[in-house]
Amino acid sequence: MSQPPPTLGVVLAGGLSRRMGGNDKALLPLAGRSLVEHATERLAPQCESVILNANGDPCRFSRMTLPIVPDSIPDYLGPLAGILAALEWSATHRPDIDWVVSAPADTPFIPHDLVLRLHEAFNETRKLIACAASGSQAHFAVGLWPVSLRHDLRQALVDRGMRSIRDWLHRHGYAEASWPIAPVDPFFNINTSGDLRHAEILAQQERVE
């Protein structure tokens, strides 16, 4: 595949950051920029456009020049709710786009060929959904989602009480695109202050290379 079809990118920043002491993890600094800026800068060149899924006061993201889209279901139901918000936003505001790719805001090293490789995995398998993996670990929040599944996802969240991305993926079946974990795991995510310190080292290594 030389070029993927038009795809909307969504950076997921809707969580409560409990493991970081309740701080707004997306805004934590890494190598001079916030985590959410790193994720957006990686994803934006690969997508037709990018939105940020975030709850609460949108003014804290005033430096971001992209639409801020909160969950369309209350009570902070997790990344599935953020994916639903992106699918529904795309259907309303970008009906010309049939695909959404998601990446968490705390994953600053996402690969530059993420969107292309996920579409290739879909084309090879014809599964409805594709997700990323590195080494032997799947990263279910990093995925390619058809906008057409938005009604099914809303029903799963509201009527079935589903919260696990893994459960919803297994319900439909999914393809997997895998990346190596060396020299840097492209899906290294930051959950603790130790992770953030390690990410600083990785970012320095990237600049040197």
TrEMBL record:
CDD domains assigned to the protein according to its UniProt record, in alphabetical order: MobA
SUPFAM superfamilies in the record: Nucleotide-diphospho-sugar transferases
Domain MobA-like NTP transferase: residue ranges: 9-169
Coiled coil ranges: none
Positions of GTP binding: L12, A13, G14, K25, N53, D71, D106
EC number(s) stated in the UniProt entry for this protein: 2.7.7.77
GO MF term set: molybdenum cofactor guanylyltransferase activity
Binding residues for Mg(2+): D106
Reactions catalysed: Mo-molybdopterin + GTP + H(+) = Mo-molybdopterin guanine dinucleotide + diphosphate
Listed InterPro entries: MobA-like_NTP_Trfase, Molybde_CF_guanTrfase, Nucleotide-diphossugar_trans
Record's subcellular location: Cytoplasm
Domain of life assignment: Bacteria
Family of this protein: Belongs to the MobA family.
Quaternary state and interactors: Monomer.
Recorded domain comment: The N-terminal domain determines nucleotide recognition and specific binding, while the C-terminal domain determines the specific binding to the target protein.
PANTHER family the record matches: MOLYBDENUM COFACTOR GUANYLYLTRANSFERASE
The protein's name: Molybdenum cofactor guanylyltransferase
Encoding gene per record: mobA
